[in-house]
Amino acid sequence: MIEINNLHKSYKMGSNSLHVLKGLNFSIKEGELVAIMGSSGSGKSTLLNILGMLDEADSGEYTLDGVPIKNLNETKAAKYRNKFLGFIFQSFNLINYKSAMENVALPLYYQKVPRKQREEKAIKYLSQVGLKEWAHHLPNELSGGQKQRVAIARAMAAEPKVLLADEPTGALDSKTSYEVMDLIQNINDQGNTILVVTHEEDIAHMCKRIVHLKDGVIVEDKTVDQVRASQYV
Ligand code: ADP
Ligand code: MG
């Protein structure tokens, strides 16, 4: 589903350049639930933004569902982004003056789905995240965990091939974090491919595979079972 080959990225600041991703390689199959783990500044968001076609690598290859992602104009990039990818952010990124249902329906509006269908789909996905009763509430009437569940419903509404989550539990307490990760696991059980960026080990362990990033290099890439086995020898 996702394949990257020798991916490099630097940020240029004046005459200086910061080499953030230093030749990354991995592939992710359909249906995987992968944590990209690493401490702050290790390049996790930079990587996720490239995978999410919000930014471009300086060199290397990226293939998404068989499509080489390179030199796309903004229109084409936006088209692929809508078709392939759903995003979940630490800060939820909901629109405050729109109800939960309207927030979930918004990506479908941009896909020109007719109103009635948009609303039906929004309710369907809100039900999946356990928030049907909250459809007509505004974000500020919801708890942090509920807001993130609305954001997850929104990411799913367009039925993307891959969900990309950047620190989805970063703004939540532990109990709520585990509930959100439970939901992410349930969605993965239905066959969705999901990448979760996190700096928290316990969150990473709720995925099935952990890609460990350190200073822009992959230092470990193992299934959670392999990680557990190596911890108990
Ligand atoms: P993480 O998400 O793992 O915390 P990031 O990918 O956000 O790491 O950042 C990696 C490094 O790149 C950090 O040193 C950060 O300061 C730097 N960085 C991130 N975005 C930019 C940018 N737009 N311009 C310059 N430097 C950046
Ligand atoms: Mg980050």
TrEMBL record:
> Which InterPro entries does the entry mention?
AAA+_ATPase, ABC_transporter-like_ATP-bd, ABC_transporter-like_CS, MacB-like_ATP-bd, P-loop_NTPase
**In the UniProt record, does the keyword Cytoplasm occur?**
no
Do you know which PROSITE patterns this protein is assigned to? Answer: ABC_TRANSPORTER_1 (PS00211), ABC_TRANSPORTER_2 (PS50893)
The record places domain ABC transporter at 2-233
Q: Where does the UniProt annotation place the signal sequence?
A: none
**One term of GO molecular function:** ATP binding
- Keywords in alphabetical order, please: ATP-binding, Nucleotide-binding, Translocase, Transport
Family from the record: Belongs to the ABC transporter superfamily.
**Under which name does UniProt file this protein?**
ABC transporter ATP-binding protein
Q: Which organism is it from?
A: Euzebyella saccharophila
